């Protein structure tokens, strides 16, 4: 049987997986020069590799990954980043995700998956390969900032005019004798 994969985030794992990444396909489809302004400093394949590091390393948040990239030489080599001070920021990664979109990420996933499926077709005891790319996330960002009106659970009220009801309590103000000073109150009145 084959040996297990190296530990997450190690140089051995990143080196092993490096050859499977379709850099040419990614750059061919999403490495478009903007019409105005400066050209992009990082290729689409580099930005996708940085995103992939959130899965292949113990760091799962992009903010933390961007902060740690200058210190991790193996991670920068995997992402094909030339200099330790020249790493993409979180804004660039967000813009890349928006530019590629869900359909683009699925296309990249298909390019990665197709050779695996062809290879697995020859396996003797292969039952199925799981693919969870079409599952939606379980959240909608900024839930608490835009509250939605709650649905009515009971029946709607009839549109007739309302009739004022009578109060259940006493509306009568009674005259109560009061005395100024420090006199004692009889025990029966409390």
3D architecture notes:
The protein is elongated and about 95 Å long. It has helices spanning 11-18, 23-30, 44-56, 62-68, 73-78, 90-120. Helix 2 packs across helix 3. Helices cover 38% and strands 0% of the residues. It is mainly α. It has a domain at 11-134. The chain contains 6 helices and no strands.
SSE layout and pairings?
Elements: H1 11-18, H2 23-30, H3 44-56, H4 62-68, H5 73-78, H6 90-120
Helix pairs in contact: 2-3
Attribute tags:
elongated, 6 helices, 190 residues, single chain, 38% helix, mainly alpha
Strand content: under 5%
Q: What does the average pLDDT come to?
A: 79
Reported for the largest beta sheet, the result is: none
User: Helical residue percent?
Assistant: 25-40%
Count of discrete alpha- or pi-helical segments spanning 4 or more residues: 6
Net shape: elongated
Uncertain runs:
none
How would you classify the helix and strand content by structural class? mainly alpha
The sequence of SSEs as H and E is HHHHHH
The N- to C-terminal Cα distance equals 90 Å
Count the beta strands: 0
Question: What gyration radius follows from the Cα positions, in whole Å?
Answer: 33 Å
In short:
By secondary structure, the protein is mainly α. It is 38% helix and 0% strand. The protein has a domain at 11-134.
């Amino acid at each position: 049987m084959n040996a297990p994969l190296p530990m997450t985030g190690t140089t051995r794992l990143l080196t092993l997986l490096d050859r499977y990444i379709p850099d040419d396909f990614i750059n061919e489809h999403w490495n478009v020069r903007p019409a105005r302004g400066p050209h992009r400093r990082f290729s689409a394949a580099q930005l996708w590799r940085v995103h992939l590091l959130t899965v292949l390393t113990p760091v799962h948040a992009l903010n933390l990954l961007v902060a740690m990239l200058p210190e991790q030489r193996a991670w920068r080599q995997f992402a094909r980043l030339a200099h330790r001070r020249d790493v993409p920021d979180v804004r660039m990664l967000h813009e890349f995700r928006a530019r590629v979109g869900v359909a683009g990420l699925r296309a990249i996933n298909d390019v990665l998956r197709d050779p695996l499926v062809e290879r697995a077709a020859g396996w003797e005891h292969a039952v199925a390969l799981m693919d969870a790319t079409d599952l939606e996330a379980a959240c909608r960002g900024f839930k608490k900032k835009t509250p939605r009106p709650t649905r009515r659970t009971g029946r709607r009220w009839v549109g007739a005019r309302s009739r004022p009801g009578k109060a259940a309590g006493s509306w009568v103000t009674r005259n109560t004798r009061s005395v100024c000073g420090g006199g004692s109150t009889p025990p029966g009145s409390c």
